[in-house]
Amino acid sequence: MKRSLRTGLFLALGMALITGAMFLSGACSQKGKSNPTDSTHLCIGVMPSIDYLPIAVAEQQGFFTHPIEIVRFASPMERDAALQTGSVDASVTDYMGAILLHSRGLKVSLPIACQGGFRLVFGRNKELDEISDLRSKHIGLSSNTLIDYATERALVDAKGKPLPYTRVEVQKIPIRLEMLSSGELDAAILPEPFATIGASKGLVAIAVPNGLTVGITGFLFQDEALTKKSAAVKAFIEGYNKAVAYMAQHPRQDWSAAVEQLLGVSKDLASQIPLPTYIEVTAPKAEDLQPILSWMKAKKLVPESYTAEGLIRPIIAE
Length: 318
Hints:
Elements: H1 2-20, E1 42-46, H2 53-61, E2 68-72, H3 76-84, E3 90-94, H4 95-103, E4 108-113, E5 118-122, E6 138-141, H5 146-154, E7 166-169, H6 173-182, E8 187-191, H7 194-200, E9 205-207, E10 217-222, H8 223-228, H9 230-249, H10 256-263, H11 267-272, H12 286-298
Parallel strand pairs: 1-2, 1-3, 6-7, 6-8
Antiparallel strand pairs: 3-10, 4-10, 5-8, 5-9
Family: Belongs to the bacterial solute-binding protein SsuA/TauA family.
InterPro entries: SsuA/THI5
Protein name: NLPA lipoprotein
Protein backbone atom coordinates (compact mmCIF):
# COMPACT_ATOMS: atom_id res chain seq x y z
CA MET A 1 0.00 0.00 0.00
CA LYS A 2 2.81 2.40 0.89
CA ARG A 3 4.65 1.66 -2.35
CA SER A 4 1.46 2.23 -4.32
CA LEU A 5 0.94 5.58 -2.59
CA ARG A 6 4.54 6.64 -3.17
CA THR A 7 4.36 5.64 -6.81
CA GLY A 8 1.18 7.64 -7.21
CA LEU A 9 2.78 10.69 -5.64
CA PHE A 10 5.85 10.54 -7.85
CA LEU A 11 3.79 9.91 -10.97
CA ALA A 12 1.77 12.97 -10.01
CA LEU A 13 5.03 14.88 -9.67
CA GLY A 14 6.09 13.68 -13.10
CA MET A 15 2.80 14.85 -14.57
CA ALA A 16 3.23 18.23 -12.87
CA LEU A 17 6.63 18.61 -14.47
CA ILE A 18 5.25 17.55 -17.84
CA THR A 19 2.45 20.08 -17.50
CA GLY A 20 4.71 22.82 -16.18
CA ALA A 21 6.17 23.83 -19.52
CA MET A 22 2.89 23.85 -21.35
CA PHE A 23 2.41 27.55 -20.66
CA LEU A 24 4.73 28.02 -23.63
CA SER A 25 2.94 25.65 -25.91
CA GLY A 26 -0.06 24.84 -27.94
CA ALA A 27 -0.67 22.12 -30.46
CA CYS A 28 1.75 22.53 -33.34
CA SER A 29 -1.22 22.10 -35.63
CA GLN A 30 -4.68 20.63 -35.42
CA LYS A 31 -3.22 17.20 -36.13
CA GLY A 32 -0.31 17.63 -33.75
CA LYS A 33 2.23 18.09 -36.51
CA SER A 34 4.55 20.97 -37.28
CA ASN A 35 3.37 22.77 -40.40
CA PRO A 36 6.34 22.91 -42.80
CA THR A 37 4.63 25.57 -44.92
CA ASP A 38 4.27 27.99 -42.00
CA SER A 39 7.62 29.70 -41.69
CA THR A 40 6.50 31.98 -38.88
CA HIS A 41 6.83 29.65 -35.92
CA LEU A 42 8.83 26.74 -34.53
CA CYS A 43 7.61 23.69 -32.66
CA ILE A 44 10.16 22.21 -30.23
CA GLY A 45 9.92 18.90 -28.39
CA VAL A 46 11.35 18.65 -24.87
CA MET A 47 11.48 16.56 -21.71
CA PRO A 48 11.50 17.96 -18.14
CA SER A 49 14.89 19.64 -17.68
CA ILE A 50 16.61 22.96 -17.15
CA ASP A 51 18.39 22.81 -20.52
CA TYR A 52 15.95 25.13 -22.24
CA LEU A 53 15.30 27.60 -19.40
CA PRO A 54 16.32 30.57 -21.60
CA ILE A 55 13.27 29.82 -23.77
CA ALA A 56 11.00 30.24 -20.75
CA VAL A 57 12.71 33.48 -19.76
CA ALA A 58 12.49 34.78 -23.34
CA GLU A 59 8.79 34.00 -23.38
CA GLN A 60 8.28 35.63 -19.98
CA GLN A 61 10.08 38.80 -21.07
CA GLY A 62 8.53 38.97 -24.54
CA PHE A 63 11.80 38.52 -26.41
CA PHE A 64 10.41 36.25 -29.15
CA THR A 65 9.02 38.02 -32.22
CA HIS A 66 7.77 34.72 -33.68
CA PRO A 67 5.74 32.13 -31.75
CA ILE A 68 7.68 29.29 -30.18
CA GLU A 69 5.60 26.24 -29.33
CA ILE A 70 6.89 23.74 -26.77
CA VAL A 71 5.59 20.17 -26.70
CA ARG A 72 6.52 18.10 -23.66
CA PHE A 73 7.21 14.36 -23.89
CA ALA A 74 7.44 11.79 -21.11
CA SER A 75 10.22 9.68 -22.65
CA PRO A 76 13.11 10.01 -25.12
CA MET A 77 11.41 7.45 -27.37
CA GLU A 78 8.31 9.64 -27.74
CA ARG A 79 10.37 12.77 -28.25
CA ASP A 80 12.56 11.19 -30.94
CA ALA A 81 9.55 9.67 -32.70
CA ALA A 82 7.98 13.13 -32.92
CA LEU A 83 11.10 14.49 -34.63
CA GLN A 84 11.23 11.57 -37.04
CA THR A 85 7.59 11.96 -38.05
CA GLY A 86 7.77 15.73 -38.42
CA SER A 87 5.54 16.45 -35.44
CA VAL A 88 8.15 18.92 -34.19
CA ASP A 89 10.75 21.04 -35.97
CA ALA A 90 13.41 20.45 -33.34
CA SER A 91 13.96 18.79 -29.99
CA VAL A 92 16.20 19.26 -26.98
CA THR A 93 18.14 16.02 -26.83
CA ASP A 94 21.41 14.59 -25.62
CA TYR A 95 24.23 14.00 -28.07
CA MET A 96 23.75 10.24 -27.99
CA GLY A 97 20.16 10.59 -29.14
CA ALA A 98 21.26 12.99 -31.87
CA ILE A 99 23.97 10.60 -33.06
CA LEU A 100 21.55 7.67 -33.16
CA LEU A 101 19.02 9.51 -35.33
CA HIS A 102 21.68 10.96 -37.63
CA SER A 103 23.41 7.58 -38.04
CA ARG A 104 20.11 6.09 -39.20
CA GLY A 105 19.87 8.55 -42.06
CA LEU A 106 17.46 11.10 -40.59
CA LYS A 107 18.14 14.52 -42.11
CA VAL A 108 18.86 16.41 -38.91
CA SER A 109 21.49 18.82 -37.66
CA LEU A 110 22.79 19.81 -34.24
CA PRO A 111 23.37 23.57 -34.54
CA ILE A 112 22.92 24.74 -30.94
CA ALA A 113 24.48 23.50 -27.71
CA CYS A 114 22.48 23.54 -24.47
CA GLN A 115 23.59 23.90 -20.89
CA GLY A 116 21.96 21.38 -18.57
CA GLY A 117 22.47 19.74 -15.21
CA PHE A 118 22.74 16.21 -13.82
CA ARG A 119 23.76 14.84 -10.43
CA LEU A 120 24.43 11.42 -8.95
CA VAL A 121 21.74 10.80 -6.34
CA PHE A 122 22.08 8.18 -3.61
CA GLY A 123 19.25 6.14 -2.12
CA ARG A 124 18.00 5.99 1.47
CA ASN A 125 20.98 4.00 2.80
CA LYS A 126 22.81 6.55 4.96
CA GLU A 127 26.08 4.67 4.52
CA LEU A 128 26.17 5.61 0.84
CA ASP A 129 27.49 9.05 0.00
CA GLU A 130 30.42 8.60 -2.38
CA ILE A 131 31.15 6.60 -5.52
CA SER A 132 33.38 4.04 -3.81
CA ASP A 133 30.38 3.02 -1.69
CA LEU A 134 28.52 1.81 -4.78
CA ARG A 135 30.51 -1.36 -5.38
CA SER A 136 28.02 -4.21 -6.03
CA LYS A 137 25.05 -1.91 -5.41
CA HIS A 138 21.82 -1.51 -7.38
CA ILE A 139 22.04 1.37 -9.87
CA GLY A 140 19.05 2.72 -11.77
CA LEU A 141 19.47 3.53 -15.45
CA SER A 142 18.08 3.08 -18.94
CA SER A 143 20.20 0.90 -21.22
CA ASN A 144 22.02 2.32 -24.24
CA THR A 145 21.35 5.91 -23.23
CA LEU A 146 23.50 8.81 -22.15
CA ILE A 147 22.75 7.92 -18.51
CA ASP A 148 24.05 4.40 -19.17
CA TYR A 149 27.22 5.90 -20.66
CA ALA A 150 27.74 8.36 -17.80
CA THR A 151 27.04 5.72 -15.15
CA GLU A 152 29.55 3.29 -16.62
CA ARG A 153 32.21 6.00 -16.87
CA ALA A 154 31.50 7.45 -13.42
CA LEU A 155 31.50 4.25 -11.36
CA VAL A 156 35.22 3.55 -11.25
CA ASP A 157 37.70 3.18 -8.42
CA ALA A 158 40.66 5.45 -7.64
CA LYS A 159 42.71 3.70 -10.33
CA GLY A 160 40.03 4.06 -12.97
CA LYS A 161 38.97 0.42 -12.81
CA PRO A 162 35.21 -0.13 -13.30
CA LEU A 163 33.25 -0.93 -10.16
CA PRO A 164 30.92 -3.93 -10.33
CA TYR A 165 27.26 -3.00 -9.89
CA THR A 166 23.82 -4.39 -10.57
CA ARG A 167 22.02 -2.64 -13.40
CA VAL A 168 18.35 -1.93 -12.72
CA GLU A 169 16.41 -0.90 -15.80
CA VAL A 170 14.09 2.03 -15.01
CA GLN A 171 12.93 4.01 -18.04
CA LYS A 172 10.90 6.74 -16.35
CA ILE A 173 12.88 9.30 -14.37
CA PRO A 174 10.11 9.99 -11.79
CA ILE A 175 9.97 6.26 -11.04
CA ARG A 176 13.75 6.16 -10.74
CA LEU A 177 13.54 8.92 -8.14
CA GLU A 178 10.73 7.12 -6.32
CA MET A 179 12.82 3.94 -6.13
CA LEU A 180 15.75 5.89 -4.69
CA SER A 181 13.47 7.33 -2.03
CA SER A 182 12.03 3.93 -1.16
CA GLY A 183 15.45 2.27 -0.93
CA GLU A 184 14.92 0.00 -3.94
CA LEU A 185 17.81 1.68 -5.73
CA ASP A 186 21.16 2.61 -4.23
CA ALA A 187 22.00 5.35 -6.73
CA ALA A 188 21.14 6.85 -10.10
CA ILE A 189 22.19 9.79 -12.22
CA LEU A 190 19.24 12.18 -12.49
CA PRO A 191 18.76 15.39 -14.46
CA GLU A 192 17.66 18.58 -12.80
CA PRO A 193 15.17 19.33 -11.35
CA PHE A 194 14.78 15.68 -10.24
CA ALA A 195 18.14 15.65 -8.44
CA THR A 196 17.14 18.71 -6.41
CA ILE A 197 13.73 17.21 -5.67
CA GLY A 198 15.53 14.15 -4.31
CA ALA A 199 17.86 16.29 -2.21
CA SER A 200 14.86 18.17 -0.80
CA LYS A 201 13.54 14.82 0.43
CA GLY A 202 16.75 13.99 2.27
CA LEU A 203 18.70 12.14 -0.42
CA VAL A 204 22.38 12.86 -1.00
CA ALA A 205 23.17 14.35 -4.43
CA ILE A 206 26.72 14.92 -5.68
CA ALA A 207 28.27 16.16 -8.90
CA VAL A 208 28.85 13.60 -11.63
CA PRO A 209 32.66 13.20 -11.77
CA ASN A 210 34.98 14.24 -14.57
CA GLY A 211 32.44 16.49 -16.26
CA LEU A 212 30.76 13.47 -17.84
CA THR A 213 27.40 15.20 -18.05
CA VAL A 214 28.67 18.66 -19.01
CA GLY A 215 28.18 19.77 -22.61
CA ILE A 216 26.09 16.79 -23.69
CA THR A 217 22.77 18.25 -24.85
CA GLY A 218 21.62 20.48 -27.67
CA PHE A 219 18.84 21.48 -30.05
CA LEU A 220 18.47 18.90 -32.82
CA PHE A 221 16.72 20.43 -35.84
CA GLN A 222 15.17 18.91 -38.90
CA ASP A 223 17.24 20.17 -41.83
CA GLU A 224 14.01 21.11 -43.61
CA ALA A 225 13.03 23.40 -40.73
CA LEU A 226 16.40 25.17 -40.80
CA THR A 227 15.93 25.85 -44.50
CA LYS A 228 12.22 26.58 -44.82
CA LYS A 229 11.75 28.30 -41.46
CA SER A 230 14.89 30.42 -41.48
CA ALA A 231 13.01 33.55 -40.34
CA ALA A 232 11.57 31.72 -37.34
CA VAL A 233 14.96 30.18 -36.54
CA LYS A 234 16.57 33.62 -36.68
CA ALA A 235 13.90 35.04 -34.36
CA PHE A 236 14.37 32.11 -32.00
CA ILE A 237 18.12 32.68 -31.80
CA GLU A 238 17.72 36.42 -31.22
CA GLY A 239 15.15 35.87 -28.47
CA TYR A 240 17.23 33.13 -26.87
CA ASN A 241 20.33 35.33 -26.81
CA LYS A 242 18.38 38.22 -25.29
CA ALA A 243 17.16 35.89 -22.54
CA VAL A 244 20.69 34.68 -21.79
CA ALA A 245 21.89 38.28 -21.51
CA TYR A 246 18.93 39.19 -19.30
CA MET A 247 19.63 36.26 -16.95
CA ALA A 248 23.28 37.30 -16.67
CA GLN A 249 22.42 40.94 -15.96
CA HIS A 250 19.57 40.45 -13.50
CA PRO A 251 19.39 38.64 -10.15
CA ARG A 252 17.72 35.26 -10.15
CA GLN A 253 14.65 36.51 -8.31
CA ASP A 254 13.82 38.70 -11.33
CA TRP A 255 13.25 35.64 -13.52
CA SER A 256 12.69 32.84 -10.99
CA ALA A 257 8.99 32.76 -11.86
CA ALA A 258 10.00 31.31 -15.23
CA VAL A 259 11.79 28.46 -13.42
CA GLU A 260 8.73 27.75 -11.29
CA GLN A 261 6.37 27.85 -14.23
CA LEU A 262 8.62 25.87 -16.56
CA LEU A 263 9.18 23.03 -14.11
CA GLY A 264 5.96 23.17 -12.12
CA VAL A 265 7.83 23.43 -8.82
CA SER A 266 7.45 25.64 -5.76
CA LYS A 267 9.25 28.96 -5.37
CA ASP A 268 11.40 27.50 -2.60
CA LEU A 269 12.42 24.45 -4.64
CA ALA A 270 13.06 26.57 -7.73
CA SER A 271 15.55 28.66 -5.74
CA GLN A 272 17.49 25.52 -4.74
CA ILE A 273 18.06 24.12 -8.24
CA PRO A 274 21.70 24.60 -9.27
CA LEU A 275 21.69 26.22 -12.69
CA PRO A 276 24.49 26.20 -15.27
CA THR A 277 25.94 29.35 -16.75
CA TYR A 278 23.85 29.81 -19.86
CA ILE A 279 25.62 31.13 -22.94
CA GLU A 280 24.43 32.68 -26.17
CA VAL A 281 23.72 30.40 -29.11
CA THR A 282 26.81 28.47 -30.11
CA ALA A 283 27.40 25.20 -31.92
CA PRO A 284 28.34 22.03 -30.03
CA LYS A 285 32.02 21.14 -29.94
CA ALA A 286 33.00 18.16 -32.06
CA GLU A 287 35.33 16.96 -29.31
CA ASP A 288 32.37 16.67 -26.92
CA LEU A 289 30.76 14.12 -29.24
CA GLN A 290 33.81 11.88 -29.63
CA PRO A 291 33.86 10.08 -26.23
CA ILE A 292 30.15 9.35 -26.58
CA LEU A 293 30.58 8.17 -30.17
CA SER A 294 33.46 5.87 -29.19
CA TRP A 295 31.35 4.33 -26.42
CA MET A 296 28.46 3.83 -28.83
CA LYS A 297 30.70 2.07 -31.33
CA ALA A 298 32.03 -0.21 -28.60
CA LYS A 299 28.41 -1.08 -27.76
CA LYS A 300 27.64 -1.54 -31.49
CA LEU A 301 24.93 1.10 -31.36
CA VAL A 302 26.26 2.74 -34.53
CA PRO A 303 28.34 1.36 -37.42
CA GLU A 304 32.10 1.47 -37.00
CA SER A 305 32.29 3.54 -40.19
CA TYR A 306 29.99 6.27 -38.87
CA THR A 307 31.84 9.52 -38.11
CA ALA A 308 29.03 12.01 -37.27
CA GLU A 309 30.27 14.19 -40.13
CA GLY A 310 27.66 16.80 -40.97
CA LEU A 311 25.75 16.44 -37.71
CA ILE A 312 27.06 19.71 -36.27
CA ARG A 313 25.81 22.61 -38.38
CA PRO A 314 26.62 26.04 -36.91
CA ILE A 315 24.10 28.81 -37.45
CA ILE A 316 24.08 32.40 -36.27
CA ALA A 317 21.50 35.15 -36.19
CA GLU A 318 22.58 37.76 -38.70
